[in-house]
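Need tokens for this chain, all 190 residues.
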Amino acid sequence: MLYAALIGYIHYEAPENEQNFKMLLEMINSMEVREDDESFKNAIDLIFEDLEKEKPDHFAVRQYKKFKLAAGKTAKSILVSAGARLAPFDIAELRELTAYDDLELDTLGDEKTALFLIMSDTDSTFSFLISMIYTQLFNLLCEKADDEYGGRLPVHVRCLIDECANCGTIPNLEKLVATIRSREISACLI
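Here are the structure tokens for all 190 residues:
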């Protein structure tokens, strides 16, 4: 619920240059919970209070209110867990890499393009980034094929995913491989 609230706020309310992991981390890092003072309000509480006054039915507000039902000790634990899961994005180079979108994945089916995603074959620390990129790529291209091109991209997108087993988990990959073909997208898993 916390992730949904914060990402919902970032997606719907933040300027485009702040719609990134850096902003999500900054929001989590600026949250403080005091177990002995349930009435304490941190900076994010105040942001959501202001948003609620303006837009009481906002998706992010509804999710944040659910998160705030947690008692102080539980809320603190949630914040620690949320921060821990996003710890790799707190590395300066990774924050910079994910601060803006220069891959333009949604344009791959418009004209002939080559995109190389290269990762270490001896260190899997950042392999989750590759799986995130593929997940985003398939989602964006399927939506684009359906919404802009009547179900088929004008240029076939062929993904040669070498070392597929080592690039992190791509959610629903088996289903994706079966459904992307009709949209002029294919994946060769090696």
